[in-house]
Design goal:
The protein is mostly helical. It is 86% helix and 0% strand. It has three helices and no strands. It starts with a helix and ends with a helix.
């Protein structure tokens, strides 16, 4: 445990940010799973795609994902959508 006041604050701030990031990552993964289930069921694909893309963009804005990682994931989603709608 740190003794210096600023180090104590850093521990608290890091814990808060870690919890927030973990919650956002979990929400993102849940949305990706919802998209996959929509693909398998074949219903609501476009709505799930739009919601998932928005979720990925928010993750980039919050600094949880790198922009290229999100672009790669969105590209894979688009390919799944195109394959499912054929």
């Amino acid at each position: 445990m740190p003794n210096i006041k600023s180090a104590k604050k850093r521990v608290l701030v890091n814990k808060t940010k870690n919890e927030r990031n973990r919650a956002a990552k979990t929400a993102m993964k849940t949305q990706l799973k919802k998209f996959d289930s929509a693909i398998q069921q074949g219903t609501g694909i476009q709505e799930a795609y739009k919601a998932t893309v928005v979720c990925l963009d928010k993750a980039v804005a919050k600094g949880i994902l790198h922009k290229n990682t999100a672009a790669r994931k969105k590209s894979a989603l688009a390919k799944k959508v195109n394959a499912a709608t054929k």
